[in-house]
Specification:
The protein contains eight helices and 16 strands. By secondary structure, it is an alpha+beta fold. The chain has one domain: 2-Layer Sandwich (Gyrase A, domain 2), CATH 3.30.1360. The strands form three sheets. It has a six-stranded antiparallel barrel with strand order 11-14-13-12-15-16. The chain has a five-stranded antiparallel β-sheet with strand order 1-7-10-9-8. A five-stranded antiparallel β-sheet has the order 3-4-5-2-6. The longest helix has 14 residues.
Length: about 350
């Protein structure tokens, strides 16, 4: 590696640089911050149903699902027995005896295997619902107006449209309920997945997917790409399972505590001992932070401090139209916000400034 910053004895990583944005992605980014855009989902749904569904689920995840009322939801994670992140998830309570959960496709199989292993089927039944539901997201500065337009609200003549927009904008985070889009009933969820930009998740039965998709295409002109979602996810400080955390990561290392995905007052769950010990008696030795680079930052690149010591590595990396090259970095705790570090690059070291997450507006 030309101009390598690697110290002796440290293996060179396989560097992966973020792709340059297309002109269309830049336009979509601007639309997202001024208007709205819709996205295809990369999640997979499962369900918990039964007389003890809340108790069974509570024994598997970091947050307290027993406190949820029907129509509410939360962010949570499932851990290994050693307290590492098996997957993170969004959980929604449908009624007293049923929950819906969505996880990344990449960790759906281990999640379902773990749930079926530990949950007594007489107490709750765990089902893979990936073929039942199709999911989209609508986000942006005017996401409420975009969702209202899906149901034809913008075409009303009695002022009801503005009332619907206002009502949607006032929904509490994680609130969900049934919602009509033309002749189709979907479940609409207010979910804080894009930092300061508001938005909603839409869940429809697979048989209604084509109609909902057509409504999205005609009512929300801008379709967001995966690249656009990644930029806004990183700007908003939300780690993703796979690139930013995995089953070698403690939940506090990935900031799941500050993101509201961990309850420190609930009862026992798999991996709780490790999480509680860190919270009440100690600290993690590394944590996910932000980097703002002088050039695109390669994923897997080693991060060195001023003395040349390796203090972390680059995780998700994007090029923001607003902030330039930014990335998540798993950094040792002694590295402070405001410090300048060097990232190993193919053509030499890249200077970057450390910041707390989320990135500044």
């Amino acid at each position: 590696m030309s101009g390598s910053t690697e110290p002796p004895g440290v293996a060179e990583p396989m560097l992966v640089y973020p792709e340059a944005l297309t002109g269309q992605d830049v336009e979509a980014y601007l639309d997202l911050r001024r208007k709205s855009a819709w996205f295809e989902s990369a999640g997979q749904w499962s369900t918990f149903r039964g007389p003890k569904a809340a108790d069974a689920l509570n024994g598997l995840v970091t947050n307290d699902v027993s406190q949820l009322r029907p129509g509410e939801g939360q962010h949570a994670a499932a851990l290994t027995p050693k307290g590492k992140v098996l997957c993170d998830m969004l959980i929604f309570r449908m009624d007293e005896e049923s929950f819906m959960l969505t996880v990344r496709n990449s960790c759906a199989a281990p999640w379902l295997a773990t749930a079926r292993k530990y949950v007594n089927p007489r107490l709750a039944k765990v089902e893979d619902a990936s073929s039942t539901w199709v999911t989209w997201m609508v986000y942006g500065a005017h996401a409420s107006r975009a969702v209202a337009a899906l149901g034809g609200a913008e075409h009303t003549v009695d002022g009801l449209g503005d009332g619907i927009v206002q009502a949607l904008s006032e929904w509490k985070l994680w609130h969900h309920e049934l919602w009509n889009i033309g002749p189709v009933t979907v479940r609409l969820i207010r979910a804080p997945l894009m930092g300061s930009l508001p938005g909603f998740i839409l869940i429809a039965e697979a048989s209604d997917a084509e109609l909902v998709r057509k409504r999205l295409e005609t009512s929300v002109p801008r379709r967001g790409t995966r690249a656009l979602w990644e930029i806004t996810r990183v700007e908003g400080g939300r780690p993703d399972w796979g690139p930013d955390m995995d089953d070698t990561t403690l939940p506090q290392e990935a900031n799941l505590d500050t993101l509201g995905a961990i309850s420190f007052t609930k009862g026992c769950y798999t991996g709780q001992e490790t999480v509680a010990r860190i919270h009440f008696r100690g600290h993690v030795n590394r944590r996910l932070r932000g980097l703002q680079g002088s050039a695109p930052l390669p994923r897997h690149g080693h991060i060195l401090d001023a003395s040349g010591k390796v203090v972390g590595d680059v995780r998700s990396s994007v090029i923001s139209p607003r902030l330039g090259p930014i990335a998540f970095a798993m950094l040792r705790r002694e590295v402070a916000a405001g410090d300048t570090v060097l990232v190993s690059g193919t053509d030499g070291p890249i200077q970057a400034d450390v910041c707390e997450l989320p990135f500044p507006e």
